[in-house]
Design a protein that fits this description.
The chain is an alpha/beta fold. The chain is built from 13 helices and 14 strands. It is globular. GO terms for molecular function: glycosyltransferase activity.
């Protein structure tokens, strides 16, 4: 208890208390717990995203850094400026998220500041990063292993990838969750839905989340249930236009659902939750599905196998429409088994995925680096 308070500088996401993606949520959950443990936390925020710019919120110090505002440069320039600022600050340790920020570790290396980086998933394999983008992510991830003092992966399978590809050891600290999540079933009436009357997909409509595969497999079934697709992309996209043009009355595209209570109700009351995410470690949407007691139907990947504990907490489909169709047919015939999956789903959120435990693990890393 008498240990000297350590100072942590954090950047790589949008800032605090901004919550949009997985990294933003992680920083919020982590920082709010760290300050309660007598840690001095500074979070670097994207200046353009914050109209009001208080210097402190909930005991967390905030620094608003500018960036070159363009699709490909915003994140990188923000991180570059943040790294320089953090290196000249009183921070004992700099914590960075996103492997795209790998090369900036050379700055902290030169300045002698201890660093840790959470490197996320296999970004270089994702279809959205074609050509130069994919090459950059692979190179940046490799540079992260050279320049940062501690690499953090969020799954055992991703730890194996970094060992095999870069010969780089890492510490595994999973993404956290909140089990026993509740929801108001009446909120799904917004879309004229009834409990267990629909399957659910949640995520950005990008090719590597495989919504097209799930939709094409679903429309070949005779299921009377709907398939609700939550998510979109914030730009004109041929892939998304093609999905929305599929003519089947059972398909319901909600777009983004920004009300967390409505989203909670959609999770909690679905008959089955489809998880088609292909690349990455511990997935936040999957953790939510476990927390809301969904019957999970997941793409068969090493990452999804790890999260569902080799089929204990979900069923799998292969990457083809026939497999999706067969899995839905099985789900339609197996109401009792699906009910059992829903009753037990939350048990998949073991201590490994508990935010308090996750915070303790990060704090141990930070204290070790600060020494």
């Amino acid at each position: 208890m008498n240990e000297k308070p350590i100072r942590i500088a954090i950047f790589g996401a949008k800032g605090y208390p901004y919550v949009y993606g997985g990294y933003d949520t992680m920083i919020k959950e982590l920082c709010e717990r760290l300050v309660k443990k007598n840690v001095k936390v500074t979070v670097y925020c994207h200046k353009a995203l914050f109209e009001e710019r208080p210097s402190q919120v909930n005991g967390i110090d905030l620094v608003y850094m500018p960036a070159v505002e363009s699709k490909s440069l915003t994140q990188l320039t923000h991180s570059f400026f943040s790294m320089i600022h953090a290196c000249f600050s009183k921070a004992d340790v700099i914590f960075v998220v996103n492997s795209a920020n790998g090369p900036f570790g050379i700055i902290s290396k030169i300045m002698g500041k201890p660093t840790a980086i959470n490197v996320d998933g296999l970004e270089w394999l994702r279809p959205k990063w074609k050509g130069f983008g994919a090459k950059y992510f692979f190179w940046a991830s490799k540079m992260a292993t050279k320049f940062y003092d501690q690499i953090i992966n969020d799954s055992d399978e991703m730890q194996k990838v970094y060992l095999e590809l870069f010969n780089a050891p890492s510490t595994v600290i999973a993404y956290g969750s909140n089990p026993g999540l509740q929801a108001d079933p009446n909120l799904i009436q917004t879309w004229k839905l009834k409990p267990q009357d629909y399957y659910l997909i949640v995520g950005r409509l990008v090719p590597d989340n495989n919504a097209d595969l799930i939709i094409e497999g679903f429309i070949k079934t005779t299921s009377a249930r709907k398939l609700v697709i939550v998510g979109d992309v914030p730009y004109q996209d041929d892939y998304v236009d093609r999905l929305k043009a599929i003519n089947d009355d059972r398909l319901l595209f909600t777009g983004y659902v920004k009300d967390p209570l409505e989203l909670a109700a959609l999770y909690r009351n679905c008959y089955g939750y489809f998880h088609g995410h292909e690349y990455g470690g511990t997935n936040p949407a999957m953790l939510k599905a476990l927390g809301y007691d969904c019957a999970i139907l997941a793409l068969d990947t090493p990452f999804n196998q790890e999260m569902l504990q080799q089929g204990t907490f979900g069923w799998y489909f292969q990457k083809n429409t026939k497999s999706v169709t067969e899995l839905i047919d099985k789900a339609e015939r197996s109401a009792a088994d699906m009910s059992e999956l829903r009753q037990n789903s939350h048990k998949g959120l073991t201590k490994k995925y508990d935010w308090d435990h996750v915070t303790d693990q990060y704090l141990a890393v930070f204290r070790n680096l600060a020494k």
